[in-house]
TrEMBL record:
Organism of this sequence: Desulfoluna butyratoxydans
Membrane-crossing residue ranges in chain numbering: 21-45
Keywords linked to the UniProt accession: Membrane, Transmembrane, Transmembrane helix
Keyword Transmembrane helix: yes
Protein name stated in the entry: DUF748 domain-containing protein
InterPro entries per the UniProt record, alphabetical: DUF748
Residue segments, region Disordered: 125-146, 772-791
Sequence ranges of Basic and acidic residues compositional bias: 132-146
Pfam families, per database record: DUF748 (PF05359)
Length: 843
């Protein structure tokens, strides 16, 4: 027994020793692990050329915890990285179930540089993507059929900064507080939560997301807020297409993304996306964008099939371009506005031909087009609003009401108070309809400078010369590409039930080319045309016009027109009443040499145009007209044209009450006639009594200016119309070929105007009578014959001139002109200063 007890005692003693030794070994191992990890890491970092310091490493293998504190690294390139604290806690008991479960992972005070040059570097360490490893051979054992799972109960990161430097992009991601909870692959339908508070390039960033990344239907749902994120770091990515990119991005939105293997992907978004102060220079074409902004506030829903093809798109909300300033120097234009807003809904179904649909309102505020260099205003618009737009594809677009306010073109040339269009519809982008098209408060300002040129033409010419002074050379035939002709564009037709325009004053004219300066205003009470239809150009359109030139000076027109027909047709009744002629004295003095002391003008006209043939009946009345001489030279020239003083010519036409009444019919073809009737009428107009009023009324009151010019041809009874001269070859009695052709034109005119008579005054020049010398060494025929006696030179001149005049009379008689209408004058004994034989024609 004693021996047995000794054996047991010995065994117990040895067991205690083994246990103690084992415990000591384990204790030494556990104590050595942190030391080994720390110094092993330092040795490895040093071997990689890093300057490294680790303040503390704490490992608890039984609890599954690892804590590293105070890590400071500096690479040979000078990049410094640091980590204040790293802690991880593994659930050791889950390893037996093939689950790598991280109960907590904490990072605090990380400062890391990630850079990519020739390779990707993190904290100075190269990160190799490496080659893909070959998959290990498949195993049929039971263990291989049970996959490993990974999960994170809680991940947190605080005071962390990652500097990302790519070849064309630099980003700084600062995480003040970030957390991820509930992420595990063995619970695929569990919702994980991601929360981030930080900054992206110093722009505040908030992220709150619910994630289901491992389920049969993956999803992301939550919100993102990013405030005033600068776009300038993306300049490298935008180059070379865009230079000097600038602007800010603001995001405040919630969204949901779901993806199913068979159903595809859906995305829904609600909130705000905004770009502000966007600017840059587009290189091709050269366009400069300044201080632009665009904001989306609303909902978006997008569906993609499993192949990523769009199947549905819907939006509801407001898309606004708050400000725009864009310059296009090549085109010489700069565009600005202070707001474009689309407020409504839009949908797109790619499976349908008319799958695009929209409904909403569109508005524009303070739009301006100006010259890109001089900033001269070209056109402006205060407000545009299209109400309740309804679009079904491009085949059917309807807008109940369109309103435009305060339009201007080349201010102050033309300004429009408002434009209202109702009941507008556009079908197939080719058929436009509108119930009413009303333009109100039109003001047009025309100014003639002292040289007589309209000032807005000067502005246009200066802009054109500035931008397009040197036109590009035309390409040669070899340089022109052999491209197929473009497809024909669809013919656009328009139908407007009522078109109306008014303005007070509609037109204001200032003429500085005369003295005193002339100023006149015209008020357009109403111009209305009904039932406009470009598809039916031969339909009569009712027209009415009422205007005032002054309180008592009126113009009214009623009737029908066909302005769109191939040959313009019209039937109009018009009245111009009580036009005060004294205000036109600057023009009458300039044209006639007389001032209009007093007088008024009234006209009642019936105008018919049938397929371009004009038939006008005018009843014209001049009352109490009194002229006084002003410019002696011009008045003398007027008297020469009229063959008597102008005031005497008017006295012939006046009745006992000082009234001149003329009934003047006008007939003719408004197209270019075979006979140059227009040029002859223009000659007659220069001798008309009221040239000044023609300058004014023909400018303002077309077609009445043309009617008046014809009507006041009454003075023609005492004037002459000088035509172009007919030329001859030296010594010839028959006109030259050009003269023969011209005489046919004159004959045609005289056939149409049988009341016209023609006077022919021919001449002869000294060269007509010079005998050409014989060539040197030759003897003229009949040189020995006796010379006939020559008549006196005066008689030879007159005889040749008379033969030329009679030849013209004979030619015109053969053309059907009665000889009694052709008078051949006896020329004076003169020699042409130009030494050209010719015949002067006077009607």
């Amino acid at each position: 027994m004693k021996q047995l007890r000794q054996i047991k005692s010995t065994v117990k003693s040895r067991g205690g020793i083994i246990t103690s030794v084992s415990a000591l070994v384990i204790l030494l191992f556990v104590s050595a692990v942190p030391f080994a990890i720390k110094h092993g890491a330092l040795f490895w970092l040093t071997s990689k050329g890093m300057e490294a310091r680790i303040d503390n490493v704490d490992v608890n293998l039984f609890a599954g915890t690892l804590v590293v504190e105070g890590v400071h690294l500096r690479a040979q390139s000078g990049e410094a990285s640091s980590l204040e604290r790293f802690g991880v806690n593994l659930a050791m008991t889950d390893l037996v179930r093939k689950r790598l479960r991280i109960q907590s992972l904490h990072i605090d005070g990380l400062d890391l540089m990630v850079r990519q040059d020739t390779s990707l570097m993190a904290g100075g360490f190269p990160i190799s993507t490496g080659e893909p490893h070959a998959e290990p051979p498949a195993r049929d054992d039971k263990e291989s059929k049970t996959p490993w799972h990974v999960g994170v109960d809680t991940f947190t990161a605080r005071n962390t900064s990652v500097n990302l430097s790519l070849p064309k992009l630099d980003l700084v991601i600062a995480l003040e507080d970030a957390s991820l909870t509930g992420l595990s692959t063995w619970k695929p339908e569990q919702v994980s939560r991601l929360e981030i508070t930080g900054a992206l390039n110093k722009s505040p960033l908030l992220v709150s997301l619910d994630l289901v990344p491992f389920g049969p239907e993956t999803s992301v749902q939550g919100g993102v807020q990013l405030t005033d994120f600068a776009l300038s770091p993306f300049s490298g990515l935008a180059a070379p297409r865009v230079a000097a990119l600038e602007g800010e991005l603001t995001v405040d939105t919630r969204f949901t993304i779901t993806q199913a293997p068979e159903a595809g992907t859906t995305l829904s978004q609600t909130g705000t996306l905004s770009l502000s102060h966007v600017g840059g220079h587009l290189t091709d074409p050269a366009v400069t964008l300044r201080d632009a902004g665009i904001t989306w506030l609303g909902d978006v829903w997008v569906a993609l099939d499993k192949d990523g093809t769009l199947t549905d798109l819907r939006t509801l909300g407001s898309l606004s371009n708050g400000k725009l300033d864009i310059a296009y120097p090549e085109g010489g234009i700069r565009l600005r506005h202070e707001g474009i807003v689309w407020d409504g809904e839009l949908s797109f179904d790619p499976s349908r031909k008319d799958g695009l649909a929209a409904r909403g309102n569109l508005s524009v505020r303070q739009a301006l087009a100006s010259d890109s260099e001089t900033d001269v205003k070209i056109a402006s618009l205060a407000h545009f609003f299209a109400y309740d737009i309804k679009a079904k594809g491009l085949a059917d677009i309807r807008v109940p009401h369109i309103s435009l306010k305060k339009l201007a073109a080349l201010p102050p040339l033309s300004e429009i108070g408002s434009v209202d269009i109702t009941g507008m519809a556009l079908e197939e982008l080719s058929h436009l309809r509108a119930e009413t098209f009303i333009i109100d408060d039109v003001v047009t300002t025309l100014v003639r400078d002292p040289s007589g040129r309209l000032t807005f033409f000067n502005t246009l010419n200066s802009l054109t010369a500035f931008h397009w002074g040197d036109s590009a050379p035309a390409p040669s035939e070899a340089e022109v590409p052999n491209t197929p002709p473009p497809a024909p564009r669809p013919i656009v037709t328009a139908k407007i039930n009522t078109f109306r325009i008014s303005g007070s004053p509609f037109l204001h004219l200032t003429d500085r080319s005369v003295r005193p300066v002339f100023e006149k205003g015209v008020t357009l009470k109403r111009l209305e045309i009904q039932n406009i239809d470009t598809a039916d150009p031969d339909k009569d359109l009712p027209l009415s016009l009422v205007a005032e030139l002054d309180t008592y000076e009126t113009l009214s027109v009623t009737g029908t027109v066909r302005p769109l027909a191939h040959d313009v047709s019209a039937h109009l009744e018009a009245r111009v009443a009580n036009i005060n002629l004294s205000s036109l004295s600057p023009y009458s003095s300039q044209a006639l040499g007389y001032l209009i002391k007093r007088g008024s003008f009234t006209a009642d006209s019936t105008l018919d145009i049938d397929a371009g043939i004009l038939d006008v009946r005018n009843q014209l009345t001049l009352r109490n007209l009194k002229l006084v001489p002003d410019d002696e030279d011009t008045a003398h020239q007027t008297m020469k044209n009229l063959s008597m003083p102008l005031d005497y010519a008017l006295s012939i036409l006046e009745d006992g009450n000082g009234t001149i009444s003329l009934s003047i019919p006008v007939h003719g073809d408004i197209h270019n006639p075979d006979i140059s009737l227009n040029s002859i009428i223009q000659v007659a107009m220069t001798k008309a009594i009221t040239t000044a009023s023609v300058s004014y009324l023909s400018f303002l009151l077309q077609p009445y200016g043309a009617l008046l010019m014809v009507a006041e041809k009454a003075g023609e009874m005492v004037t002459e119309i000088h035509l172009d001269s007919v030329g001859y070859a030296l010594g010839a009695t028959e006109p030259n070929p050009e003269g023969l052709e011209y005489l046919k034109v004159v004959a045609g005119l005289m056939k149409k105007k049988e009341f016209l008579n023609l006077t022919v005054c021919a001449n002869a020049v000294a060269e007509d009578l010079v005998t050409p010398e014989a060539p040197h060494g030759e003897t003229p025929e009949n040189a020995d014959a006796p010379e006939a006696p020559e008549p006196p030179a005066r008689e030879r001149y007159l005889d040749l001139a008379q033969q030329r005049g009679r030849a013209i009379r004979h030619i015109l008689a053969k053309e059907g002109i009665a000889p009694g209408r052709i008078h051949v004058c006896r020329p004076d004994f003169t020699v042409s200063a130009q030494k050209q034989p010719e015949a002067e024609l006077t009607l």
